[in-house]
Write a structure and sequence with these properties.
This protein is α+β, with helices and mostly antiparallel strands and 415 residues long. 12% of the residues lie in helices and 27% in strands. The protein has one domain: Jelly Rolls (Sandwich), CATH 2.60.120.1270. It has helices at 5-36, 43-49, 105-110, 230-233, and strands at residues 52-57, 63-68, 120-124, 157-158, 169-175, 184-190, 203-211, 220-228, 239-245, 253-255, 263-264, 286-293, 300-304, 307-312, 326-334, 361-369, 375-376, 383-386, 393-396, 403-406. Strands 6, 11, 12, 13, 14, 16, 17, 19 and 20 form a nine-stranded antiparallel beta sheet that branches. Strands 4-18-5-15-7-8-9-10 form an eight-stranded mixed beta sheet, with no helix packed on it. Strands 1-2-3 form a three-stranded antiparallel beta sheet, with helices on one face. Strand 13 (300-304) and strand 14 (307-312) form a beta hairpin. Pfam families: Neprosin, Neprosin_AP.
Length: 415
């Protein structure tokens, strides 16, 4: 039977309404998928790139955006609402000499792009879509965690058991005793390009400034160093990184500027930028890092060489609100054992500390900032934390201010 015009109109209206409903549901589903999909560069970082006033390509192929300093990802953090940027520390530790004009060797290593204009900061575009907001515990099963050990283990070798907070992570780390009072740390870190086997594994060398504990889930940590992390960066280059947590790696916290928190002030250092590594038996490259608390503002500042990079605002922390209770320096890898054996991921240079200078990776001139706000040698009785000496080991030099560390991982002795 032929439909009347009024019937056809109703039929067409019904079809149109049905299409609208399906379209709404489809768009809702797309929105849901988009909400679950890892965002490129992290949520805050993605938005910040939209405010770029200049874009450059570094010598090693990285894309760098110069972003308005007031539109950087840090200010997405609720604790930083109405935050006033501190342009430089009010108080430096005694023994530290800041350099205002001349780039230091550590900064020149990173500066493979034109300096950003005043009032902006360099922001690295990542090469992969990674959910940086997922946290340290998701990215490579919690990247760069502080080495967990018992107080009675100091001065001896400590191991991380499978039930510890560090299961899957292996260390060659030097640590102060817990319960101290520290206002920063410094180190000269040898630069290498270790081989990383697993897709979600990494190899890093860094310093940790810590307050609180794993036991009470209030561990606060500010961290800086270099790492090779293919999943995070999309390549196997040796790159500068920072990290922070205020919840024992269980919640908020983030690498570099991929999430809110760290406030960058430097126009010339890009977080995540690549380094030239050392050559085995040849020229050695170094990174000098200092983290210290500005006792006037309470902010924790990061220096690369003698150049200020930025700070972790005091408002981010609780157990680091006054001082740190522990400092650590050393190497860490993730061993996923996805093939049923130990990983072949290198730590440091990939060679054992017994091979010595020019071949084994090192930390030298490690220091702490004490209660008088002075850079000084670490206290006596440093702890030596080595997870498995057959895989990665450490040798502390007399005096305790320098050490060699590292190893190749998988071998007959490290199955």
């Amino acid at each position: 039977m032929k439909k009347k015009p009024t019937d056809l109109a109703g039929y067409r209206f019904g079809r149109a309404a049905l299409v609208v409903v399906f379209l709404f549901l489809a768009l809702s589903h797309i929105g849901e998928v988009e909400a679950r999909r890892p965002w490129k560069n992290g949520g805050g970082s993605t938005r910040a790139h939209k405010f770029a006033v200049k874009t450059m390509k570094s010598a090693d192929g990285d894309i760098i955006d110069c972003v308005d300093i007031y539109k950087q990802p840090a200010f997405d953090h609720p604790a930083l609402k109405n935050h006033t940027i501190q342009r430089e520390p009010d108080v430096y530790p005694s023994g530290f000499e800041p350099v205002a004009e001349k780039a230091t060797a550590s900064v020149r290593q990173l500066q493979r792009f034109e300096k950003c204009p005043q009032g902006t900061i360099p922001l690295l575009r990542n090469r992969l879509e990674v959910d940086y907001s997922a946290g340290h515990h998701v990215l490579a099963r919690s990247g760069g965690r502080a080495a967990h050990m018992d107080v009675d283990a100091y001065g001896t070798s400590s191991t991380a058991s499978e039930s510890s907070p560090n299961a899957g992570h292996e260390y060659a780390v030097v640590s102060t005793a817990s319960g101290g009072q520290y206002y920063g740390a410094k180190a000269v870190i040898n630069l290498w390009n270790p081989s990383v086997e697993g897709e979600r594994e990494f190899s890093l060398s860094q310093l940790w400034v810590l307050g609180g504990s794993y036991t009470t889930n209030d561990l606060n940590s500010v961290e800086a160093g270099w790492m090779v992390h293919p999943y995070l960066y999309g390549d196997s280059q040796t790159r500068l990184f920072i990290y922070w947590t205020n919840s024992a790696y269980q919640g908020p916290g983030c690498y570099n500027l991929k999430c809110a928190g760290f406030v960058q002030t430097s126009t010339e250092v890009a977080m995540g930028a690549a380094f030239n590594p050392s050559t085995y038996g040849g020229e050695q490259q170094e990174l000098i890092l200092t983290v210290f608390k500005d006792k006037s503002s309470g902010n924790w500042w990061l220096m690369v060489g003698e150049s200020q990079v930025g700070y972790w605002p005091a408002s981010l922390f609780n157990t680091l609100a006054d001082s740190a209770s522990m400092v650590q320096w050393g190497g860490e890898i993730v061993n996923d054992r996805t093939t049923g054996r130990h990983t072949a991921t290198d730590m440091g240079s990939g060679h054992f500390p017994t091979e010595g200078s020019g071949k084994a990776s090192y930390f030298k001139n490690i220091q702490v900032v004490d209660g008088s706000n002075a850079l000084t040698s670490p206290p006596p009785g440093l702890g030596r934390v080595v997870t498995n000496a057959q895989c990665y080991d450490m040798e502390i030099e007399a005096g305790g201010s320098s050490f060699n560390y590292g190893g190749p991982g998988l071998s007959d002795e490290c199955p």
